[in-house]
Amino acid sequence: MKFTLGEIRKRAYHEPYKFDGQADVSELETMNNDIREIGSVHVHGTANDQGDEIIFNFTINGKMILPCARTLVDVPYPFEIEAVEVFSTSPYAGDEDDEDEIHPINGEVLDLTPYIKENIILEVPFRVFSDDENATSQAPFEGNGWEFVTEEKNEKKIDPRLKKLESLLDDKKEK
């Protein structure tokens, strides 16, 4: 979602500038996080022009697919995030403003998409659980370099490192 400073100043002169639209955040799927799938999100809110600062109050609505913490099956996770971002057009905005979370604007176009992505990543839950009772049957039992082993399977399987020791025990039984 991109806005020009002229558009914001013209529309937010007497009352807050309202905006409503979609933002594509599918790039989050390729990052190193738990998000398996996310499409575009609905973003709506207002922008206020207060001198050298532009304050965006907005809500992000969407749905992401995350892995279940127990079974690794896909779990749809709907979310609604309230966010406030402050931008400064002042040429004197510096390092002090970084601590106050005031973002400098370079040029005449303000791109809100990176801040939308940042707010989504910050709100990804630590773990989610599937409500589906059949989730265990849908769970993967093996993958790239790993396999789920039950107690019964584990007892039947002999560690290859101990295979030679087993032959020594067989020799004693024969005598």
UniProtKB/TrEMBL annotation:
Q: Which InterPro entries match?
A: YceD
Q: What is this protein called?
A: YceD family protein
Source organism per entry reads Virgibacillus kekensis
Give the taxonomic lineage as stored in the record: Bacteria, Bacillati, Bacillota, Bacilli, Bacillales
